[in-house]
Amino acid sequence: MRILVVEDERKTASFVRKALQTEGFAVDLCTNGADALNAAKSTPFDAIVLDIMLPGRDGLSVLQLLRSQKNSTPVLLLSARGEVNERVAGLNAGADDYLPKPFELSELVARVRALTRRTGDNKSTLLRVADLTLDTLTHRAQRAGVEIELTSREYRLLELLMRSTNRLCGRMMIIEKVWDYDFDPGTNLVDVYISRLREKIDASFEPKLLHTVRGMGYVLKEQT
Ligand code: CA
Description:
By secondary structure, the chain is of the alpha/beta class. The chain contains 8 helices and 12 strands. The protein has helices spanning 10-22, 33-42, 59-68, 84-92, 105-120, 152-163, 171-179, 189-201; strands spanning 2-6, 26-30, 47-51, 75-79, 97-100, 126-129, 132-135, 141-143, 146-148, 169-170, 210-213, 217-220. The protein has a 5-stranded parallel beta sheet, sandwiched between helices. A 4-stranded antiparallel beta sheet has the order 6-7-8-9, covered by helices on one side. A 3-stranded antiparallel beta sheet has the order 10-12-11. α1 (10-22) links the parallel β1 (2-6) and β2 (26-30). The structure holds calcium ion (CA). Calcium ion binds at residues 7-9, 51, 53-54.
């Protein structure tokens, strides 16, 4: 379980980090909103502890940006003010929980644990290859925490490839399982869908995961 803590006050940040680490969480620390957004983009966190009062871009605006980028990582907002308005604004912006300062570290740890448990409930439905995830319950795909929109056919193709990770998927097998044809329609249907999928899951990311085995088919794997 990896947690991102975003807090500019060094003392608070280090207390929070230590408390979470003691409970077995891996913790990354950011001291401003821009760094937090970059970190959340490149690493899939299990939860984010986000202070509202930050230099530059404040926590609420970081949260709004995350949600507008379809990043659905659970967020616990910290606030020095603890006003009702701010709490409402935070929850409206997409926060999952809210903790006014000063707080007990044990309280913070309990809240973070609850947030990660909530995402953990769906674990059995989540397929993962490197930083690419596919939820077979909700049909949501993400790479490096970025939401990927799939058509239903693309979803079926990706699910097949992810369930067969590191194994070759032949063209005929793909045609049977994704299109339910028991004959080769003799078109470049598979190639077209593979290149669409590649555009979505690989084009803007490293390392490339979807590989062509010339004359044979395709394989989804982390290393070439
Ligand atoms: Ca602060």
